[in-house]
Amino acid sequence: MEKREQIYEEKAKKVYATEDPALVIVSYKDDATALDGLKKGTISGKGAINNRMSNFLMGLLEKEGVPTHFVKELSDRETVVKRVSIVPLEVIIRNISAGSFAKRYGVEEGIVFDSPTIEFSYKNDDLHDPLINSYHAVALKLATEEEIARIKEMAFQVNKVLKAYFAGLGVTLVDFKLEFGRLPDGTVVLADEISPDTCRFWDSKTGEKLDKDRFRRDMGGVEDAYEEMKRRVLGG
Ligand code: TMP
Ligand code: ASP
Predict the structure, then answer these.
(1) How do residues 15-58 score in pLDDT, each as one tens digit?
(2) How far is the CA of 117 from the centre of ligand 2 (A)?
(3) Pocket residues: Cβ below 6 A from ligand 2
(4) Alpha-carbon gap, residue 206 to 101, rounded angstroms
(5) Residue 116, Cβ neighbours under 10 Å: how many?
(6) In the CATH hierarchy, which fold is given to the domain comprising 6-82?
(7) Which of 24, 48, 172, 197 fits as disulfide partner to 202, beta carbons 3.0 to 4.6 Å?
(8) Rounded Cα–Cα distance for residues 22 and 70 (Å)
(9) Which atom of ligand 2 is nearest the CA belonging to 34?
């Protein structure tokens, strides 16, 4: 698979065309942003960890019946994925209160919910990714009602699989963000990444944060947290 022209670059990734119009190559960077891009930095080794961890988790999800964009890992940082048209929604599942949920509703972090919650944000940098409900998403033609129903079903299935998987590694899956894309035939598949950038992971015993919150909140030990998640998921 040959890398051709760069199609676009985002905060943490570059995307390249290939000789096959149905496939693109994603290249993961060490760059990190937070607070709507206000805070910038690098997390050394993050690109390779996120690439390999995300690919591993997508493989696991495929086996559990969740279709994804994943095709083939090319190297530490590069992966071939199916070219999709991204549904412009960030889909957030929460098992425990944290982050913007705790802030918005004025509650502490760490409240364990009886059942998981779902919310959507409209992916739009100019508007700073505002919260949106499914009726508004349909009204704005961001997705159809059927697509939203399918996205919800897949997102809760991802939660079920990943929550159990991480529990086995001594990691509590607090919350995470997913993105979905459409294949040319209209099938909706899981896209983007699943990594410490996009999930909150707490050590089940100590409660220690093992994710990007260490960067967002200037806690230090960012690289070590990513390394620890890599060790638990991928070994070595
Ligand atoms: P939040 O509590 O800040 O809304 O974040 C919820 C989850 O979504 C958390 O695991 C981090 C992830 N997330 C992203 O992956 N990208 C984003 O831009 C935001 C705001 C959150
Ligand atoms: N707000 C997102 C985060 O906290 C990322 C970003 O601002 O680019 O992870």
Answers:
(1) 999 999 999 999 999 999 999 989 999 999 999 999 999 999 99
(2) 20
(3) 11, 33-37, 212, 216
(4) 22
(5) 16
(6) Phosphorylase Kinase; domain 1 (3.30.200)
(7) 172
(8) 12
(9) 7
